[in-house]
Structures are given as structure tokens and as C-alpha cells.
Amino acid sequence: MKTDEYVLERLGQEDASASAKQTKRWLENSDLKPVGRGPASVTVKEALRLWRTRLRNIEFTKKPINGLPELIRGLESLAPQRKVDQFGFTGSTSVATLFFDRQKGQYIGSAVVERRK
């Protein structure tokens, strides 16, 4: 199964959150394509270190990252040593990283950056 199909399937599960279903609709209606054949796997601790830094850097870059506060809250709800899968996507107007709990397959959140024009 291709990465984009796999992600859409996970986002569309019956028990998916409203946020996951909204992300699925957005992904289906965009030109985003996967950047790899599968997910990168990191611990929650590693992901939080990176994305908290990126959140602080918004003050300097003036480039918002949509979904980032929600993603951080989702990651913070998990144990630091837990593994998460992250899928990267890129398109003509934006880039996105989507996160899923590796054990349960549940959507955690996403970070989306609009490309500069």
C-alpha cells in the first residue's frame, strides 16, 4: 500500500477523532504527495524536543505552523519513550508532517507550513 493511501486509511478509521477526519478531508483535497515510502519513527521525547523548538522559533521566523500547538499537546499526552510514526508530505502550496501513535495507530496531530509566495 502506498504511503498516502496508508495515511488516508488511518485517518478515516471509524473511531478517528474529528481532527483526524478533518485532516483526511484536507489531505484528499490538496496536491500534497508523500516524501518517502513510509514513516520515520521517533520517540515522543525526540519529537517534542524538535517541535517545541519550532514553536518557539515562530517568534523569529514569523512563519506560522498550523496545528503545532495541538500536535504538541497530543505528544505531551503520551509517555516520553513511546514511539510515534511521522509521515512527511509536500505540495505546491504547503508541506505537512502527520503523526500517529505507533502502537495504536491513532492520529496524534500534524504540523503544516504554507510555502512563501
What does this protein structure show overall?
- This protein is of the alpha+beta class.
- It has one domain (3-114).
- Helix content is 40%, strand content 26%.
- The chain has helices spanning 3-11, 18-28, 44-61, 68-76, and strands at residues 33-34, 40-43, 83-90, 94-101, 107-114.
- Helix 3 runs antiparallel to helix 4 (68-76).
- The termini are far apart.
- The relative contact order is 0.21.
Mean pLDDT: 91
Largest sheet: 5 strands, antiparallel
Query: How many domains is the backbone divided into?
Result: 1
Name the shape in a single word.
Answer: globular
Looking at how many chains there are and whether they match, the oligomeric state comes to single chain
Structural class: alpha+beta
- Measured by DSSP, the beta-strand proportion falls in 25-35%
Summarize the amount of helix as a percent range: 40-55%
Total strand segments: 5
- Provide the low-confidence segments as ranges: none
Terminal residue distance = 34 Å
DSSP summary: helix tally:
4
> Rg from C-alpha positions?
14 Å
H/E element string?
HHEEHHEEE
Topology:
Elements lengths: L2 H9 L6 H11 L4 E2 L5 E4 H18 L6 H9 L6 E8 L3 E8 L5 E8 L3
Antiparallel strand pairs: 1-3, 2-3, 3-4, 4-5
Helix pairs in contact: 3-4
